């Protein structure tokens, strides 16, 4: 996984152009969705509060898949003291492109004392998909974060390989305006999947971010990964924990990511685990 310049963008034919802006704030003892602006096919279901104060919300993409030329933008802001958990009801599918890129831009701004959990289900890239994915978390001092993303290159459950297509994924995190993480993954052809310095032949890669964390949280994650049968690693960058898992079994990968979330949530957010109900369906 190495830093790389952006993919060369081919002029896109008409595609879905969608933008969703969400703003959360504490109101009367719990977090409420106080502003929602929607354009195009990005939407949310009704917010609910299964554990009291935190707000749970599902982000939807009604077309069911993303094709070349589609552009999706998600802008999420948490005001001071808010706590929101966002997930998706299913995997996001990126279909084969005849040339144009699909682009997804996600910006999360978390104010002082606020807590964000961004826990989408996996991105599935069909062979021939061309995707640029940019995610940026901007945290104020005292903000807390648990977030993950999973890229599935092809569908290993049916022995489908990502034999053609492109992916450029950039994951950034800044704290108080200072860049703390700039993580890039570039896949230009099938050979990039097999490089030992890349994905080493594994079609699934997941990244989890947790902050603030200390050495105790890093050791707890290492223990949880001790029996994981695929390559995995955990790194602490100051108070930011970065966990990476490779796999060829998506069900096992998702189970382990959820186990990490359950273990880290009390330490990072001070809350007992309360899994989104959609995970059980």
TrEMBL record:
What keywords is this UniProt entry annotated with? Chaperone, Cytoplasm, Nickel insertion
Q: Where in the cell is it found?
A: Cytoplasm
Q: Which domain of life is it from?
A: Bacteria
Q: Does the keyword Cytoplasm apply?
A: yes
Main function? Required for maturation of urease via the functional incorporation of the urease nickel metallocenter.
What family name appears in the similarity comment? Answer: Belongs to the UreD family.
Describe its assembly.
Answer: UreD, UreF and UreG form a complex that acts as a GTP-hydrolysis-dependent molecular chaperone, activating the urease apoprotein by helping to assemble the nickel containing metallocenter of UreC. The UreE protein probably delivers the nickel.
What is the designated name of this protein? Urease accessory protein UreD
- Native organism: Pseudaeromonas paramecii
Lineage in the entry? Bacteria, Pseudomonadati, Pseudomonadota, Gammaproteobacteria, Aeromonadales
């Amino acid at each position: 996984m190495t830093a790389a310049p952006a993919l060369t963008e081919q002029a896109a034919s008409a595609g879905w152009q969608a933008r969703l802006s969400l703003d959360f704030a504490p109101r009367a003892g719990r977090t409420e969705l106080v502003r929602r602006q929607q354009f195009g096919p990005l939407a949310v279901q009704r917010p609910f509060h299964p554990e009291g104060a935190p707000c749970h919300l599902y982000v939807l993409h009604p077309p069911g898949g993303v094709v070349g030329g589609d552009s999706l933008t998600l802008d999420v802001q948490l005001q001071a003291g808010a706590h929101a958990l966002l997930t998706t009801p299913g995997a996001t599918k990126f279909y084969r492109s005849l040339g144009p890129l699909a682009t997804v831009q996600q910006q999360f701004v978390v104010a002082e004392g606020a807590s964000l959990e961004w826990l989408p289900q996996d991105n599935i890239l069909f062979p021939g998909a061309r995707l640029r994915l940019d995610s940026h978390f901007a945290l104020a001092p005292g903000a807390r974060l648990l977030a993950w993303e999973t890229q599935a290159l092809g569908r290993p459950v049916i022995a489908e390989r990502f034999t053609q297509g492109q992916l450029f994924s950039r994951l950034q995190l800044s704290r108080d305006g200072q860049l703390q993480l700039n993580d890039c993954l570039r896949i230009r052809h099938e050979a990039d999947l097999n490089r030992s310095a890349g994905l080493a032949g594994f079609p699934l890669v997941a990244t989890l971010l947790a902050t603030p964390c200390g050495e105790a949280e890093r050791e707890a994650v290492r223990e949880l990964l001790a029996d994981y049968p695929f390559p995995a690693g955990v790194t602490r960058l100051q108070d930011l924990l970065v966990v990476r898992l490779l796999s060829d079994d998506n069900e096992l990968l998702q189970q382990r990511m959820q186990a990490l979330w359950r273990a880290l949530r009390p330490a990072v957010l001070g809350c007992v685990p309360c899994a989104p109900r959609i995970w059980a369906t």
